[in-house]
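Hi again,

Forgot to attach this to my earlier email, sorry! This is the prediction with pyridoxal-5'-phosphate bound. I've pasted everything inline since the attachment limit keeps bouncing my files.
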Amino acid sequence: MPFTANRQFKQNPRLFVAAKDMHYTTSDGRQVLDGTAGLWCVNAGHARPKIVEAIANQAAELDYAPAFQMGHPKAFELANRIVDIAPEGLNHVLFTNSGSESVETALKVALAYQKQKGQGSRTRLIGRERGYHGVNFGGISVGGIVTNRKMFGTLLTGVDHMPHTHNLSKNAFSRGLPAHGAELADELERIVTLHDASTIAAVIVEPVAGSTGVLIPPPDYLKRLREITRKHGILLIFDEVITGYGRLGTPFGADYFGVTPDIMVTAKGLTNGVIPMGAVLVSSEIHDAFMTGPEHLIEFFHGYTYSGNPIASAAGLATLETYKEEGLLTRGAELAKVWEDGLHSLRGEPHVIDVRNIGLVGAIELEPIAGQPTKRAFSAFLHAYENGLLIRTTGDIIALSPPLIVSESQIGEIVDGVRNALRSIQ
Ligand SMILES: Cc1ncc(COP(=O)(O)O)c(C=O)c1O
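Structure tokens for the complex follow:
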């Protein structure tokens, strides 16, 4: 079982056997309200007809086409539809099969781009403490979650980290962006001074750090990162695996913050979580830097057997159509105030030391049980599940991200479910 307490799970398994719209059905026949869009991915809700139909039709029509030296129309169509909704300037797409693969792809593009430009000394990658960029070696190297790193040796060399922006003493119970900490972006200048810009290829951050427990950047923090990276010729990569496809009430986090990176990493919501797929977007400047040399030669030695898989592409197209028809990429903005008020009504409940929110993302941070970190939040998770609500916990933080089709009354149910759990656990 991935990222699971295996022995605990096997003593008392939690199994879903069906799902529709906002609800799962458990193996013992109970309905569970999805407060997490699966794992931050089922943005349009479950078993949406258009997506189901597209997958079935595609499997019958063209199940697989080789990804190397061959193609099929839907991958190109999907790339174009993604570019249509992406921030201006990000207009080329590489397909992958997960967020982790998208991260590795982005880091490799960044290194190879610098070499293509005659700047082969730019080999360093800069991430951020508490960042989550998947589980592969590049991602855990630039990532900053100790449990994901400490067992796995020296990781990539030449990586440095900026500090995270979480500051409970100054920013607890902020609504939306926290007021303090924009100056932490200047830590990038310190790192540049230490290593010299000529050794740095790229900086990678999540616009909002999700998996570590929803750390929301202070106003202008990302703008400042953009200015510093541009000034020093360093590529800026946004890992939008969570913030992409409507989660913040805008198509991408880049739109929310008004900051366009050079490379954007996406996955999850691209196919509504239904078929594994990721997409990495790059600028023409980056794409064109590779389009040199004899035309019969491969320009970028990278790719996966399942890059742009036909069924995944069909799922992606149907997902983007569903988002468009139902206005889901911006629906989060309409619900954000109700969501914020609901979540902040949990202030004052037992164990709560912070509540954070942005778009349709929320976090409730709990005081850990002394000597037993993560146990309190895990108890809340079990209590909520047993009482018909799926929440996610990371450390002692409850993270919430319902499908973007959630109704106002379902937001109320989510908040009440968390409240009941907090009042019931130790
Ligand atoms: C920001 C970010 N990057 C990368 C990943 C990894 O995605 P996957 O689990 O699809 O490999 C995640 C997953 O939660 C993520 O949140």
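The CA atoms of residues 130 and 145 lie 5 Å apart. Residues 98-100, 103, 132-134, 206, 210-211, 239, 241-242, 267 surround pyridoxal-5'-phosphate (CB under 6 Å).

That should be everything now.

G.
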